[in-house]
Automatic annotation (TrEMBL):
PANTHER family: AUTONOMOUS TRANSPOSABLE ELEMENT EN-1 MOSAIC PROTEIN-RELATED (PTHR33157), TRANSPOSASE TNP1_EN_SPM-LIKE DOMAIN-CONTAINING PROTEIN (PTHR33157:SF12)
Taxonomic source organism: Hordeum vulgare subsp. vulgare (Domesticated barley)
UniProt-recorded name of the protein: Predicted protein
Domain of life: Eukaryota
Annotated InterPro entries: EN-1/SPM
């Protein structure tokens, strides 16, 4: 829209303040605002998931609305940021540190990453007892966890938190024992990493399911083999008992029940074909003597 179009439809609270309305219109029609608007729109288009559930209010007003709706006190800024990126103030529950274990509950993976980074950097610098939900937000810690101001504002707080120091100044005050400050990953990088993690988990689950199927198949095969062996043993025993009864009727002594051994059968079969184990008939030379006589003959 052009300036003259805006000037024809002033907002009702600016009807008697047309000079203020004209100043706003001049700002909206300026090239600086247009460039900033397009850049912000492009960044929003690249974002994965819903930005937040605050609506048109900031975090402080979101906390006041939540406290009024639930008839309690407003939480600290860290909890408010987490709650505003989970659900609307009418539906969201009070933040719990266990919520960070479920990134899928947050509107976008970037907000979850910022909360986790702030918590981890706080524990690394202030001790394991550090609880981000207690007390106000530490601006320098937000700068460290978010790697400065990549888009003009620090990672947590939606512009409500101000840090007078730059990231370079904060680094100069650090000692060699302080943890390294890493860059803030882009939302698309976090999304790719999450997809890779999800794909890896799905692959591991599929492999575990395949291993389970293989184990079940082996167990079924073993059970079938054992059942077949039991049936064969029962059949052999029944045949032997029938043979024993026939021997008793004829007044004969039945031989002992044979024991079937596959390995023994193979060995006995091989042994029967070994010439060295064959006993010679009466009047015939042994295989060894025959070979010696052949070597002795001219």
């Amino acid at each position: 829209m052009e300036k003259e179009h805006y000037m024809k439809v002033p907002l009702r609270w600016c009807v008697d303040k047309m000079d203020c309305w004209e100043a706003l219109v001049d700002q909206w029609c300026s090239e600086t605002w247009e460039t900033s608007h397009n850049n912000t729109k492009e960044r929003r288009g690249k974002m994965f998931g819903v930005p937040h559930h605050q609506g048109s209010v900031n975090l402080i007003q979101f906390g006041e609305n939540w406290a009024r709706h639930n008839k309690t006190e407003a939480p600290q800024m860290y909890d408010l940021y987490a709650m505003a990126h989970t659900a609307s103030y009418k539906k969201v529950k009070a933040f719990s540190k266990s919520d960070l274990e479920h990134p899928e509950n947050f509107t976008n993976i970037s907000s979850h990453d910022k909360l986790v980074k702030y918590r981890d950097h706080g524990k690394a610098r202030k001790g394991e007892d550090f609880n981000p939900s207690e007390g106000p937000i530490d601006p320098e810690l937000v700068m460290i966890a978010g790697n400065g101001r990549p888009h003009g504002s620090i990672a947590i707080g939606d512009g409500l938190i101000r840090c007078p120091s730059t990231l370079r100044q904060i680094k100069e005050h650090q000692t060699s024992s302080c943890p390294e400050i890493t860059r803030r990953p882009r939302p698309v990088e976090l999304s790719i990493e999450a997809d890779i993690h999800k794909e890896r988990e799905a692959m591991q689950a599929a492999m575990a399911e395949k291993d389970k199927e293989i184990r079940e198949l082996e167990e079924r095969t073993t059970a079938l083999v054992e059942a077949e062996r039991a049936r064969n043993d029962a059949s052999t025993r029944a045949i032997y008992e029938l043979f024993v009864s026939m021997c008793e009727k004829n007044g004969q002594v039945p031989p002992p029940m044979p024991v079937i051994n596959v390995a023994g059968t193979n060995m006995s079969r091989n042994a029967s074909h070994d010439p060295s184990t064959v006993e010679p008939s009466p009047g015939q030379p042994s295989p060894g003597e025959t070979s010696q006589s052949h070597r002795a003959s001219p």
